[in-house]
Write a structure and sequence with these properties.
Blueprint (H helix, E strand, L loop, with lengths): L2 H28 L7 H9 L1 H6 L5 H22 L2 H4 L4 H21 L9 H18 L9
């Protein structure tokens, strides 16, 4: 199985992982554990004029499309890792934690978004949980079982 196949499978799993994250995040926002989802905050910060022009009823679609795109890119990056690393039982959770950490210490400050230390503990836990879920799905054994 070539590197391109591992990357494309990783990208596909990344989309599915982002979808799973979105489901968990829908629950955590409904429970008021997460006030503002990172994908929406990123869109409002990076392209405020364009995001404001999106009709209110279509904004969730724009947020999801962006989130799934990021998920695909993160999954593709996971596919670039050496096979022995991808196959390690802790690879997914560690990858999810690293993705969350990269966002919190790199992307969020660069965009002027609140960082983890500005979040309530319940919000931090919820955001960490959905990134652990992301990592677990990205690292899940592909079907059929070869990669």
């Amino acid at each position: 199985m070539g590197a391109l196949s591992a990357v494309s499978r990783g990208a596909a799993r990344g989309v599915v992982a982002a979808m799973a994250m979105s489901g968990l995040r829908r629950m955590t926002t409904a429970l008021s554990l997460v006030e503002d989802t990172p994908p929406e905050a990123v869109l409002r910060s990076t392209v405020p004029g364009a995001f404001a022009r999106v009709p209110d009823q279509h904004r969730p679609v724009a947020v999801e499309a962006m989130h799934w795109t990021y998920g695909a890119l993160g999954g593709a990056a996971f596919g670039l890792l050496p096979r022995r690393v991808r196959r390690h039982p802790l690879a997914g959770p560690i990858y999810g934690i690293l993705a969350w950490t990269a966002f919190e210490i790199g992307i969020a400050p660069a965009l002027g978004l609140p960082q983890a230390d500005g979040h309530k503990p319940a919000e931090q836990a919820a955001l960490l949980a959905d990134h652990l879920l992301y990592g677990a799905v990205v690292a899940a054994s592909p079907w059929p079982h070869r990669d």
